[in-house]
Amino acid sequence: MPNIRPLSAELAKKAADELFEKPERLDEDLAALRTWLSKCPHIKARTDDQFLMMFLRGSKHSLERAKEKLDMYYAIRTAAPELMRNRDPEEAKSTELIKLGSAIPLPNTVTPDGPRIILIRPGTYDPTKYTIQEVFRYNTMMADIMMKEDDNLIVAGQMGILDLSGATMAHFLQFSPSFVKKATMWSQEGSPLRQKGFHYVNTPSGFELVYNMFKNFLNEKNRSRQSGLVVRAHSKEHAAD
Fold first, then answer.
1. Predicted structure pTM score
2. Transmembrane ranges (predicted)?
């Protein structure tokens, strides 16, 4: 038997129904990933069962897709060192961002088998003090920890709430096309997370420009799925209607 955390009954059913998880195949699939990694000298990967299960579940137990995600998970660290290296939670700015709560995983899910909800609040940080690269490094540190520890996140996916209260044009100007491309590459190709949707609240004018830039970097599959995702903007003007 694989050395992994047992899922709750609700998540085990979701894993079987939506991720095509078959407990009797896990040992074989995990062994296949380890064998493949042993033949990839360019990938210096962890090989414990719980870590590899992230990629199997994030790929709906497609071995080939899991291999692609594992490869990109490590490749992005070379391709975007400004986003993925020097990630020290005790470094001064990282500690400050944690205390500011610019990204917070909410403790409760809507249902026992529901996706993890992440509240993102860019308006909490000063864009003249923190670069978008520093903020993104903090977010990926949090994501890496949660992917290893949060079964709802890996099995049921992630639902984002982007609260733009206090966000200014200075925040939006931090989003260069180069940064957006690398951030999108990480979220689409280099992470086992499955994004279930996003809600945008308190959207100021100018937000559409940043949103459309991100949308332009989505791959064909994710772009075609946009209508199926929960993508809604709730602005102060709408609230007043």
1. 0.86
2. none
Residue 138 lies in a domain: yes
Q: Which two tokens stand for residue 224?
A: 């075609």
pLDDT tens column, 70-85 = 999 999 988 888 888 8
- Looking at the fold, whether 39 and 101 belong to one and the same domain comes out as no
Measured distance CA(115)–CA(98) in Å, rounded: 22
In contact, 125 and 102? CB cutoff 8 Å: yes
The answer to which of 50-54, 175-179, 231-235 has the lowest mean pLDDT is 231-235
Which residues in 65-204 belong to E strands, given as ranges? 103-105, 116-120, 158-163, 195-201
Q: Is residue 156 packed enough to be buried (19+ CB in 10 Å), middle (13-18) or exposed (0-12)?
A: buried
Which pLDDT tens digit goes with each residue over 105-140? 999 999 999 999 999 999 999 999 999 999 999 999
**Residue 158 domain-assigned?**
yes
Tokens of 187: 């979220």
* Residue indicated by tokens 């639902």: 159
pLDDT in tens, 208-236: 777 777 777 766 655 544 433 344 455 55
**Strand, coil or helix: 178:** helix
Q: Which two tokens stand for residue 103?
A: 């990204």
**51 C-beta neighbours (distance < 10 Å), count:** 17
- Is 240 among the domain residues? no
Calpha distance 145→36 (Å, rounded): 25
Boundary (domain end) residue, out of 27, 53, 79: 79
Look up residue 119 and give its two tokens. Answer: 């509240």
